[in-house]
Design goal:
It is built from three helices and 18 strands. The protein is mainly beta and 219 residues long. It folds into two domains: 79 residues, Sandwich (Immunoglobulin-like), CATH 2.60.40; 116 residues, Cyclophilin. The chain has an eight-stranded antiparallel beta barrel. The chain starts with 10 loop residues before the first strand and ends with a strand.
Length: 219
């Protein structure tokens, strides 16, 4: 049986012609299309500067250091080729990243028509709570308990890092992994800290002795 010989391509098209990466990033390049459609897509990959960006035989690019490199895909059937210009920037320091963990250091706590600001703790539960607030403000119906706290179900469980804690007015904690507790008095128990109200002026009065609805949102 005679094997079907693939035609030589007249044109090669890459999935990307330019890309900007950070040191350590990677990118998968591939032949998106060929002309004619029945032509061979087999190519040999090369980099003009493998110290800046290397490429393996499958078109997998790895950014290594700051600079510019040209990644070339050359047909194995003829001399047709196509290139992608890769610009590599230095890896950003964590302090430069604008992710939610860095930005969301505080939140709004609305009780009735009064809004307070709380400083957030740094732990896994807070990270998960921030993600919830990024989707939409979190409103919790909270009941009064023992004349020093309000407690309500979060509707889901967060990662706990419980420690024996003596709370004070303004403290916001996670209890049993799925309940938010806000304090206008003091108590000693094992909690995961979420945050603390910055200015307690009007805090106790806003909570009162009744059941309340509290909305938590990002600033």
């Amino acid at each position: 049986m005679q094997l079907l010989k693939r035609k030589a391509p007249k044109k090669l098209v890459l999935n990307k012609t330019t890309a900007t990466l950070q040191v350590g990033d990677s990118l998968q390049l591939k032949i998106k299309s060929v002309t004619p459609k029945t032509a061979s897509k087999k190519v040999k990959w090369s980099s003009s500067n493998s110290k800046v960006a290397s490429v393996n035989k499958s078109g997998y690019v790895k950014a290594k250091k700051k600079g510019t490199a040209i990644i070339t895909a050359k047909s194995t059937v003829n001399s047709k080729k196509v290139t992608c210009k890769i610009k590599v920037n230095p890896k950003k320091k964590s302090s430069d990243r604008s992710d939610s963990k860095e930005k969301a250091k505080s939140m709004n706590v609305k009780v009735g028509n009064k809004t307070f600001t709380a400083t957030l703790e740094k732990n896994k539960a807070v990270d998960e709570f921030i993600q919830m607030m990024k989707e939409k403000p979190v409103t919790i119906s909270m009941r009064d308990y023992s004349g020093f706290e309000k407690v309500g179900s979060l509707g889901k469980s967060l990662t706990t890092s419980n420690r024996q804690t003596t709370t004070k007015s303004g403290d916001i904690v996670l209890y049993n992994g799925n309940q938010i507790v806000v304090f206008y008095g003091s108590n000693s128990w094992s909690y995961t800290r979420i945050g603390k109200i910055n200015n307690l002026t009007g805090w106790k009065e806003a909570l009162g002795s009744r059941d309340v609805s509290i909305t938590f949102s990002l600033k």
